[in-house]
Write a structure and sequence with these properties.
The complex is a heterodimer of chains A (about 325) and B (about 300).
Chain A (H helix, E strand, L loop, with lengths): L1 H28 L15 H11 L5 H13 L5 E2 L4 E2 H36 L4 H15 L2 H15 L18 H22 L1 H15 L2 H8 L4 H19 L1 H18 L5 H10 L3 H29 L1 H5 L1
Antiparallel strand pairs in A: 1-2
Chain B lengths: L1 H10 L10 H11 L1 H23 L2 H4 L26 H37 L1 H16 L2 H11 L5 H10 L3 H14 L3 H8 L4 H12 L1 H25 L10 H6 L4 H6 L1 H29 L7
Helix pairs in contact in B: 2-15, 3-5, 3-15, 5-6, 5-8, 5-9, 5-12, 9-12, 12-15
The chains are: A mainly alpha (about 325), B mainly alpha (about 300).
């Protein structure tokens, strides 16, 4: 067990290095820099060149990379040119917002997926199953951003049940119960939109697992010993079918990152996905490299978590 | 021993029966599955209509700004109203569907070519080659697609439809490569490959004239399903503003007007038709893909 975990974690190191170089080189290749947009009659181009020299932007790329990486390891992502504040400070609140959005989305995804998957697997090929399979089918074909737009239009504008932008009502002081409720209220609609669409794969997977497990010999044994139907399902089948679902937990993270970019932009939710798009439009490279790096690290960690859970569940993977 | 002999004699058919050809199996499956058949008819109609009409329509004419007819609701002159630049939505919808379909097909073919070649080589040779190739693939698979494509789109200096599809291709070939590789791993152990090797066929010949045709059903199904996904991805990226530029309308650029709350709330004619069209396109391509998938697996066939 430990051997596998250590070996799997070691693979992560070259992945992280390649990722950080890739992101850094990408940012270097982008046309223009944060200063090139500020050329005007009252700005002296020579002064701009001086600033560039001072900031070390004219140094060879590997020196800049080493400097950047050194800072990142100490938790310092540099200074944002557009927001005029340290990037670490800027993303602190954003990360918290995106984190809570992801947590609520995951909870909702499992709340929807587990009962539906169980019903669909237990009563397979009945009208209930067909209804649920139909839902997963449409969910599979619907792009997240269209669904999110429709949800925003319906519940945000037409019915007015939910706020249409922001992450908290202005003027509410942090730490109070009211503040917490306001936060939850703001992220409920984006999270629900994301969960309703991304849940289809979990439902389908759980259904197929249950249909498979149902026909195994140990279930026959349990029935032969006189276990009640609910006991067979809740104790024997469910326990065996839920483990693989747990293993996919890590991979959900990569999906959430892609989703949060769309959902945060549509719902005007100030998180990392919105910051990523903003930083590209504004050519704010320090912010851009920080957000992409953090997103990349999150998905690498997600894959690691999944592999470790999988190895716990399925010993064959460990031996390989 | 005696028994076995008589058994095989009995099973042997008197006259060799011709097994149905691949196309006739697919056709039977489609006719049986009414939804898939309707989807196919719908797709053919859309493709013929969109490509036919866009021969007459002039893209330059449609994307020209007309300040006298901004945000007009649907009328006789503008079937589906106009956008904030006074441009006809109906015309944009047709050109946009054509552009979205074209890039979807282009990306699907390019990812298919790369993925098939990569998967076949990794699966056929196995061992160290497979190991190294799979580690590279794993790395690509980990990268969050939307994020990395947005970053690439922002750095390309001469941005065009071609570079956009190349960027998408660069980060989308892994899925099909992995499928083909596992199929090739199974397939290469079979007798016909071993026999061909013994007869002295070159690896190149075995891979492309013997292994490839035997993976064709998997390839057709995967590429059909990928087409639907790629159309969705393109419209998603265009929606965020990192796909097609506004001068080249696509279904995604039409939807991106809905980021303006006024448009989302009051001007349904701009974004609703495009959303419905994307949904219908993706659903029907998926339906056809699922029917193809069943046709390739004898246990699941309905026809």
């Amino acid at each position: 067990m430990w051997k596998f975990t250590v070996r799997r974690s070691l693979i992560m190191i070259p992945q992280l290095i390649v990722l950080s170089i890739l992101i850094f080189v990408l940012a270097q290749l982008m046309p223009g820099d944060a200063l090139s947009g500020q050329v005007g009659p009252d700005v002296d181009p020579e002064r701009l060149e001086e600033i560039r020299e001072e900031m070390g932007w004219n140094d060879p790329w590997h020196e800049q990379y080493a400097r950047w990486m050194g800072g990142v390891l100490k938790g310092d992502f540099g200074e944002s040119f557009r927001f005029k504040m340290p990037v670490t400070e800027l993303i602190e609140e954003r990360i918290a917002n995106t984190f809570w959005l992801s947590v609520v989305t995951l909870i909702l995804t499992y709340i929807i997926a587990i009962p539906l998957g169980i019903t669909s697997g237990r009563y397979n090929d009945t009208w209930k199953d067909q209804l649920i399979t139909g839902y997963t089918y449409v969910g599979f074909a619907t792009p997240l951003f269209i669904f999110a737009l429709v949800m925003l239009w319906l519940f945000g504008y037409k019915l007015g049940w939910f706020p249409t932008s922001g992450s908290v009502t202005p003027g509410v002081s942090p730490g109070t119960f009211e503040y917490f409720m306001s936060k939850l209220y703001h992220l409920l609609l984006p999270a629900l939109s994301m969960a309703l669409i991304t849940t289809f794969s979990t439902i389908q997977y759980l259904r197929n697992e249950i249909v498979d497990t149902k026909q195994k010999d140990f279930i026959l044994t349990a029935r032969a010993k006189g276990a009640s139907e609910s006991r067979v399902y809740n104790r024997h089948i469910l326990r065996n079918s839920l483990l693989p679902i747990a293993a996919f937990f890590g991979f959900e993270i990569t999906g959430l990152i892609g989703g949060s970019i769309f959902v945060e932009n549509i719902f005007g939710y100030p998180g990392m996905g919105q910051l990523l798009v903003e930083s590209i439009t504004l050519r704010d490279y320090t912010v851009l490299t920080a957000t992409t790096l953090l997103f990349g690290v999150a998905s690498i960690l997600g894959a690691l978590i999944s592999d470790i859970i999988l190895s716990l569940v399925d010993p064959r993977i460990r031996i390989k | 021993m005696e028994n076995n002999q008589t058994k095989t004699d009995e099973v042997k058919p008197k006259a060799p029966m011709k097994s149905p050809s691949g196309i006739s199996i697919i056709w039977r499956e489609l006719v049986r599955d009414k939804v898939a058949l309707l989807s196919l008819i719908f797709l053919v109609l859309i493709v013929v209509f969109v490509y036919g009409v866009s021969l007459i329509l002039d893209q330059e004419e449609i994307v020209k700004v007309d300040l006298f007819s901004i945000h007009e609701p649907p009328s006789d002159e503008f079937l589906l109203g106009t956008d904030y630049g006074g441009r006809d939505i109906f015309g944009q919808l047709i050109i946009g569907t054509r552009n979205s379909l074209s890039i979807g097909i282009l990306v699907t073919i390019m990812t298919g070519l790369i993925g098939i070649a990569y998967g076949l080589i990794a699966g056929y040779f196995g061992g160290h080659i497979d190991n190294i190739m799979m580690r590279i693939l794993d790395f690509f698979l980990i990268l969050p697609f939307t994020m990395i494509v947005i970053a690439f789109v922002a750095i390309v200096p001469k941005y065009s439809v071609l570079t956009f599809s190349l960027i998408m291709t660069a980060f989308l070939w892994m899925g099909i490569a992995r499928l083909i590789r596992s199929k090739a791993l199974q397939e290469k152990e079979l007798d016909y490959i071993q026999a061909s090797k013994t007869l002295g066929s070159s690896n190149f010949k075995i891979i492309f004239t013997q292994l490839l045709p035997n993976c064709s059903s998997l390839i057709i199904v995967t590429m059909t399903l990928n087409l639907a996904a790629n159309i969705g991805l393109e419209s998603g990226l265009s929606f965020l503003g990192f796909g097609f530029p506004e001068s080249t309308p696509s279904l995604g650029t039409l939807l991106s007007y809905a980021t303006n709350p006024q448009t989302l709330e009051f001007r349904w004619w701009i974004w609703v038709p495009a959303s419905i069209l994307i949904l219908l396109l993706m659903l029907s391509i998926n339906n056809v893909g699922q029917a193809l998938k069943r046709a390739t697996d004898a246990r699941q066939r309905r026809g």
